[in-house]
Amino acid sequence: MNNRLQLSLIMLNRLVDWFIPAELAADRESRKQARMFLISHLFGPFMGNTVPGGLYLLDPTPGYPVAVLAVSITAFWVFPFVLRALGRYNMLVLLSVQNLIFCILWSCYFYGGVGSPTLPWVLTIPLLAFFYLGPNPSLRLTVLALFAANFAVFAALEILFDPPMNDMPSASVQGLGIVSTVAASLYVTMMAFYYAKILASGAELENEMKRHLATATELRRAAAESERAGAAKAEFLAKMSHELRTPLNAVIGYSQMLLEDADAEGDKQSAADLEKIHAAGHHLLRLVNEVLDLSKIEAGKMELFAEDVEIGSLICDVVDSFRTAAQANGNELSLTLEGKLGSVRCDAKKVQQAIAQIVDNAVKFTENGRVTVTVARTSGERGEQIVIAVRDTGIGIAQSAIPNLFEKFSGGDDTTSTKYGGTGLGLALSLKLCRLMGGDIAVASEVGAGSCFTITLPTLLATSLPVVEAAEEGVQALVALAQQNPGAPTPNVPLTDAA
């Protein structure tokens, strides 16, 4: 039963809202008043017309007063359509109240004067003024003045002119009084019921808003706590950076010295052990650097040092540094520079770091195959850019793994990680470095056929990023530092289908 009632109210609101102009619907209070106005005018004439209907049945000689009263009451149905077509809500309210006053006083004048059985309808006038106009005092006073003026005219007519005599029997007058009182009571009850439903809906909406505000407050508190935690993390990493790197560099340095001494003395067993210590130290230092760099980028503290670089020479140096590792895996490593590359303005160290990680992965995951690095200078939507494609014939990547490939600690499945090693930080760092410099990385791969990673970098470092200019001699002199916005959106990694 409750569900049916709720459904009926929803359908009723949809019908009523169809008549409400957009300018009224935009304001919640105005929409509430307009709904009361429309409910009154859509359903009120059904109850109001019981009075002329009763007069027509009970009066032995019904004349034009009954017809005028019926037409005036039926005219209320016109108001919703006028409201939808023209708006002008306040004007229509005053016209509607005037029409109601006319109907009541007209029936009173012709059927009993101040003792008329239709007089109880007068009580609906202030009630409707409250429903229609809300807390607007000036319009309420206007309605009261309108009623006073009409009542003064009615009283003057009663005093100056004898009201027309009607030949309704007293029993019929009493019957009309019952009909009029019941209709007026039903009308007031209907309006009060609908007003109560509106108030209940408003209370529910207010409670919902309070819940949303409470949620927003919790979110703000959580955001503030997150910012404090991020600041504490950044401070911790800044302090730990030196504490972590210094002992690792000492381990690497001393192991290198001991390794050279062991080689000089011909102690192959010690040299082999020291070589492992030396390699492990380098590996650990690299992991520490990756973690610290990722944390810097996420905290918005990573700086870019812009300088003019011959991009071909820079990439050539990166590729050459992996030739020994490629040969150890039986791979053929080649570099192709397409056209005139020229110089670019970039952070050379970070470009090297991003490219080195991609080439390192290609060499590591390829055995007895080919790794090809192709570099070209092209024109894109944002101007000229450098495109570096690293293709290999290695193990490839499953399509299901590509969407998470650049997530931290998600470089591959457990089997791959166990066989080839790695923490999954390198690709994540490379992507973040490229995006920090205004570029991106795309990947296409097929299991068993190899992969192609494509790095795209602008030839001019984006000025909206934090940049520290360096002198041409290589001295990194701080000229300007703009704080990066850590909340800036990051574009999705563009993925292409494997060829």
Summarize this entry quickly:
The protein is 61% helix and 12% strand. It contains 16 helices and eight strands.
Write down the Rg.
43 Å
Into which percentage range does the β-strand content fall?
5-15%
Rounded average pLDDT: 78
Instruction: Give the helices and strands as they follow along the chain.
Output: HHHHHHHHHHHEHHEEHEEHHEEE
- Let me know the number of strands: 8
Low-confidence stretches: 417-423, 463-499
* Alpha-carbon distance between the two ends: 62 Å
Strand order of the largest sheet: 2-4-5-7-6
**What is the structural class?**
alpha/beta
Provide a count of the helices.
16
Name the overall outline: rod-shaped
Sheet of most strands: 5 strands, mixed
Query: What is the helix content?
Result: 55-70%
Structure report:
It is a single chain. The chain is α/β, with parallel strands linked by helices. The protein has 16 helices and eight strands. It has a five-stranded mixed β-sheet. A three-stranded mixed β-sheet has the order 3-1-8. Helix 5 packs antiparallel against helix 7 (89-110). The longest helix is centred in the middle third of the chain and has 96 residues, at 170-265. Residues 417-423 and 463-499 have low confidence and may be disordered.
Can you lay out the helices and strands and say which pair or pack?
Elements: H1 2-18, H2 22-25, H3 28-48, H4 50-58, H5 64-74, H6 78-86, H7 89-110, H8 124-133, H9 137-160, H10 170-265, H11 268-298, E1 304-310, H12 311-320, H13 323-328, E2 332-338, E3 343-346, H14 348-364, E4 370-380, E5 383-392, H15 414-420, H16 425-436, E6 440-446, E7 450-458, E8 467-469
Parallel strand pairs: 1-8, 2-4
Antiparallel strand pairs: 1-3, 4-5, 5-7, 6-7
